[in-house]
Specification:
The complex is a heterodimer of chains A (about 475) and B (about 220). Chain A is mainly α. Helices cover about 70% and strands about 0% of the residues of chain A. With about 220 residues, chain B is mainly α. Chain B has one domain: Cytochrome Bc1 Complex, Chain D, domain 2, CATH 1.10.760. In chain B, the strands form 2 sheets. A two-stranded antiparallel sheet of chain B has the order 1-2. A two-stranded antiparallel sheet of chain B has the order 3-4. In chain B, a hairpin with a 4-residue loop joins strand 1 and strand 2. Chain B starts with a helix and ends with a helix. Classes of the chains: A mainly alpha (about 475), B mainly alpha (about 220). At the A-B interface, helix 2, helix 5, helix 6, helix 7 and helix 10 of A face helix 1 of B.
Chain lengths: ~475, ~220
């Protein structure tokens, strides 16, 4: 389907990309708006940990609600929109045919974002469900399912109508994520919101959903992008690719079983925690193979690859950290502390976000046919994001470790505990400020770049940079 | 993975496998009933009063679980017992009457499982209302759960009795809203006193640990005879 390039800039811009340009840009832009909002809310909550009176008089932004809002904006705003766009783009390109049902994608995107915005309004006004990863009020959730289906249908059509018989790891991950989310989302809704199960079984079901949303939906979306873009940029076949299917199935089969590690010592049957600890250890195989397959990303290259390689390193490190903290002797210290928050940030801000951002840095010039508006902004974003994530995860982990030891020592009062945590929480707040600044730079750069491709002309238009694209022959290295 | 249908079935099977775990837990605990104690002629746990159940919804919508857990870990596993949060671990039966159990995942503040049974002195409604209004340490004040209004006729019996800086201006009073009152009712209902059989440590493991003391020595003596 590749049309003959007329100049360097359009070398990599195929009919597949140009036809999907505006629907995918809409998804990406919706995602980035939520990323900025979630970054702002993260800064608010991290300041509240240092100065509890910050926004305390404002019912909408009291700590518990601000945190629920931040989490929701990140997952259902940023990660969902960006991940869907990545999945559609990967499935379209590897399928070898322009995406179909793109009208549905646009309608679905609009309604998905309306639903999430209404849901956030609901959380702010006191309708939150108080279930982690599923804070959105139940009234908007059916609408989200329908909107998701409207977006996802383009991906399914790209898979069924693919022109190439063989399939690639990026496609498996993208398709699995597209199909599995509606299943876990609707099952969780039934078990938690429409016909709530009894007592602590809600905690079991909520844990299954939260872990499922990560291992069956978000992580596969990130991996779909990484498995597609890394060989494209490095121009080399993936090493040890024969293991990739095993890693894929290991994640799908074992992933959601690891949920019980948060319930170690909790009021649930002990087998739930035991199975989770074993699953965490077995899942190391998945992380190991992902690291093995995509180790070429660490070799350097452009900004996009730097984001993705950092994201992959964080993803693999997060998997190992999950396995270590699952053990009961470690959980005794880290459970219920900021160490959990550090692990979550490592996975979401460090792993997932960085991979998505890297894929966007790679995809946007190809979708628009224009170079990024400002190379300095790109470098600035990279520096801020790297510094921000490292500082955030490091300081939260230290805070969590201290908190865990202090909590287990009954002689330490909560006032002393707060004093011990303070320097680390200050560092975490500074890290959130860095990340927010990075998000803002990214958003501005994205907007100006997309505006260049506007058919009505744009004040920001500038000539395409031929050095941005390499020769198609080197780029079309097989993805497997 | 060339065959789309088999791939689809594989995805479904992988998902159903882990969901099976949730169903298994449901099978195990879904029909948990209150425990009837013959000596006390009473079933435990108590059903919380309606206002406390409403208060739990306030607890949920304010996101209190972002800082407070409601689950005590067993003695010896962490410092829960030493901190006076509970003499026994929380068990599934403690939660069967709660519409939305708030186990929580973060302890920036203390665990609240047995707040109403704290020793030596448990907080009363007035303490909790004042705490909610002013905040303390790392906990913010929730002044939006209270209304400040002019005293008309008799002052309200529910008005917060502050002295000094916090006291309301003369002719005005600070009154808890209905939400604040139900939240406090919920907090005052948090006290799992009853010692269920499943909450006690397993006797078998104790025997092993202590090298066969307890019930075992009697048998040994018999054997010697």
């Amino acid at each position: 389907m590749t049309t003959a390039p007329t100049n360097a800039a359009s070398a990599e811009v195929t009919a597949i990309d140009t036809s999907a340009r505006w629907p995918l840009l809409l998804l990406f832009w919706s995602a980035i708006k939520w990323l900025v909002l979630s970054g702002g809310l993260a800064l608010v909550t991290s300041i509240q940990l240092i100065k509890p009176s910050f926004f305390a008089d404002c019912a909408w932004l009291t700590y518990g609600r601000a945190q629920a809002l931040q989490e929701t904006a990140f997952i259902y705003g940023w990660a969902a929109n960006a991940g869907l766009a990545v999945a559609l783009w990967v499935l379209g390109r590897l399928g070898g045919a322009p995406l179909r049902a793109l009208n549905w994608v646009v309608v679905g995107t609009i309604f998905w974002n309306i639903a999430v915005a209404l849901g956030c309004l609901g959380i702010a006004t006191g309708e939150a469900t108080s279930i982690a990863f599923l804070q959105l009020p139940r009234a908007v959730q059916p609408l989200m399912l329908v909107a998701y289906a409207a977006i996802g249908v383009a991906g399914i059509l790209a898979w069924t109508g693919r022109r190439v018989a063989c399939t690639y790891a990026a496609q498996w991950y993208a398709l699995a994520a597209l199909l599995l989310f509606p299943w876990i989302f609707s099952a969780a809704q039934v078990m938690l919101l429409w016909m709530p199960s009894r007592g602590v079984l809600q905690a079991v079901a909520a844990g299954w959903f939260a872990q499922g949303a990560w291992t069956l939906w978000l992580a596969p979306l990130g991996l779909a992008g990484a498995y597609y873009v890394v060989p494209k940029i490095t121009g080399r076949a993936l090493p040890s690719y024969d293991f990739a299917p095993h890693a894929f199935w290991a994640l799908l089969v074992l992933g959601a079983w690891t949920a019980g590690r948060h319930l170690v010592g909790g009021p649930v049957p002990a087998w739930i925690a035991s199975v989770a600890i074993v699953s965490c250890a077995l899942l190391l195989f998945h992380y190991f193979v992902v690291g093995l397959n995509l180790r070429g990303a660490l070799g350097g290259g452009g900004t996009a690859l730097k984001f993705i390689s950092f994201g992959l390193a964080a993803y693999v490190a997060g998997g190992f950290l999950d396995a270590i903290t699952a053990f009961r002797d470690v959980a005794r210290i880290t459970q219920f502390t900021l160490f959990d928050a550090a692990q979550q940030q490592l996975a979401l801000s460090g792993g997932l976000s960085m991979i998505f951002v890297g894929v966007i840095y790679y995809a946007l010039p190809r979708l628009t046919g224009r170079a990024w508006f400002s190379a300095a902004f790109v470098r600035g974003h990279l520096a801020l994001a790297l510094l921000g994530v490292l500082l955030l995860v490091g300081s939260l982990a230290m805070a969590g470790w201290i908190q865990g030891h202090d909590l287990n020592n009954a002689k330490v009062s909560f006032a002393d505990l707060a004093a011990h945590l303070r320097p680390w929480l200050l560092a975490a707040a500074a890290a959130q400020a860095l990340l927010l600044l990075g998000h803002l730079i990214f958003a501005v750069n994205f907007l100006f770049t997309a505006a260049q491709a506007c058919p009505f002309g744009s004040p920001f238009a500038k000539p395409a940079d031929p050095s941005l694209f390499r020769q198609p022959s080197t780029l079309e290295a097989p993805a497997s | 993975m060339k065959n789309g249908f088999v791939f689809f079935l594989g995805l479904f099977a992988a998902l159903a496998f882990s969901w099976g775990g949730v169903l298994l837990a449901n099978k195990q605990l879904g029909a948990l009933v209150p425990y009837y104690d013959d000596t006390e002629s009473k079933a435990f746990p108590d059903r919380p009063p309606g206002i406390a159940a409403r208060g739990q919804l306030v607890y949920a919508d304010l996101g209190c679980a972002a800082c407070h857990t409601q689950a005590v870990r067993r003695p010896g596993f962490g410092g829960d017992q030493a901190r006076g949060w509970g003499e026994r671990q929380s068990v599934a039966r403690d939660y069967i009457f709660q519409t939305r159990p708030q186990l929580g995942a973060s302890r920036l503040g203390p665990d609240l499982t047995n707040l109403a049974g704290r020793k030596p002195s448990a907080p009363d409604a007035e303490d909790l209302l004042k705490l909610l209004y002013t905040g303390q340490g790392a906990m913010p004040g929730y002044s939006f759960l209270f209304t400040e209004r002019a005293v008309v006729g008799e002052p309200s019996a529910k008005a917060l009795k502050f002295t000094g800086k916090l006291a309301a201006a003369s002719g005005r009073e600070i009154v808890p809203t209905e939400r604040a009152q139900s939240l406090v009712a919920h907090l005052l209902s948090l006290n799992n006193v009853y010692d269920y059989p499943e909450a006690r440590p397993m006797p078998k493991t104790e025997e092993k640990k202590e090298g066969g003391h307890g019930a075992a020595p009697a048998k040994k003596e018999e054997a010697r005879k």
